[in-house]
């Protein structure tokens, strides 16, 4: 296992869900709502930026509503999400993700896929599946973790504050982007 990998495929312990992240930037270290606001101020109108804003609100201490808004924003197809989970089953193990992992991992992964969408990529180069499907899978992980793995909540809320402060920081009026 590489230092940037997460979890243990062979373990059944809670919190041991595996992710191979070597070579992938940790976009979760960026305040995602501010990133979305920067793109919005530059005139970018794109469903991925709307979703990034909602994901950023969750990152800053938001709740289930922010996650479900990401799903609404990306207009994903269930089949794409299912195929991404099938890909994960082959890459890791069936239901490996359901064991839980630090919440920052699927937040960062969803953020990377949203940025790829914004930059015009439709298919993920590794899986060959649509980025929307990858985003949806990561959001479903987080929705499950809200109930099954709350101890994995490592969001930087102490530094980012609550989502209500972001509109003032990005110059918006608080409405969805």
Short description:
With 177 residues, this protein is mostly helical. It has helices at 32-41, 47-59, 64-74, 78-91, 104-118, 131-148, 157-160, 166-170.
Keywords:
mainly alpha; disordered C terminus
Commentary on this structure:
- With 177 residues, the chain is mostly helical.
- It has one domain (27-170).
- Helices cover 51% and strands 0% of the residues.
- The protein contains 8 helices and no strands.
- Helix 3 (64-74) packs antiparallel against helix 6 (131-148).
- The N and C termini lie far apart (39 Å).
- Mean pLDDT is 81; it is low at 165-177.
Q: Report the total helices.
A: 8
Mean pLDDT value: 81
Q: What is the global morphology? A: globular
Q: What's the β-strand tally?
A: 0
Task: Give the class from helix and strand content and strand pairing.
Answer: mainly alpha
The rounded distance between the terminal residues' Cα atoms is 39 Å
Uncertain stretches = 165-177
Number of domains: 1
Gyration radius, to the nearest Å? Answer: 15 Å
Largest sheet: none
Helix content: 40-55%
Could you state the order of secondary-structure elements as H and E? Answer: HHHHHHHH
Q: What is the strand content?
A: under 5%
